[in-house]
């Protein structure tokens, strides 16, 4: 059990969530399926209608309504409002320590089980129109500027390194770098901004995207939900699930989606990608880049 803490005189977010999970597990099979989904995706669920949540879980809409009632709420709308309040508060660092002390659920390791489910969703994402459009934007842009901050920025080196192997003029910026401070001076007509943002969404990144949007930059976003705040500034949004049931969020699905996206960019521009990869390989041979 998560140790109870107060947040502005209210129960802690983690305490409320754990109460929901415990109550749901004592209910029907449908309620237990809902709990299984919510344990990993409560952020996404907070933005769903009851019908959307029912479809995501694979139960009836009536089951979702009964689940909300079983938790002591008048209906789905009241419970959904509570979920959104929790997300605004977020889990504190101290509360996340509960996941370190309780790494396993009834199904096994929380992180591994969540990541398996997240990765299963990527096939659908990679077949979507949004995925194709996102890749086409990257292919057609003269320059690609990857931007992120805080934890989400750990994905920047991977994205820049491998995207740079299949197309030229790929740059990354995060707070504290020179490019970050100079982005507003870049040519908005030739540059595509690719924002990578997962909870908790950094204010510095949101402020930057607002400024770039006002300067009419084309912005595409890789994030965790269509209703993510970065979507307000993005012309195109690509969604990848993240695992929250851990001490720190896990990005296995986003980094896999980046890999698929880079592969699609290479497929859409085969001549350019092949020539670039050939030149890079020749340079690696000349510089004896790899140990043998």
Description:
With 292 residues, this protein is α/β, with parallel strands linked by helices. The chain has 2 domains: 6-102, Arc Repressor Mutant, subunit A (Orthogonal Bundle), CATH 1.10.10; 120-286, Glucose-6-phosphate isomerase like protein, domain 1 (Rossmann fold), CATH 3.40.50. Helix content is 55%, strand content 12%. The protein is built from 13 helices and 9 strands. The strands form 3 sheets. The protein has a 5-stranded parallel sheet, sandwiched between helices. Strands 1-2 form a two-stranded antiparallel sheet. A two-stranded antiparallel sheet has the order 3-4. Helix 11 links the parallel strand 7 (191-197) and strand 8. Helix 1 (13-25) packs antiparallel against helix 2 (29-45), helix 3 packs across helix 4 (61-70) and helix 12 packs across helix 13. The model is unreliable at 1-10 (pLDDT under 50).
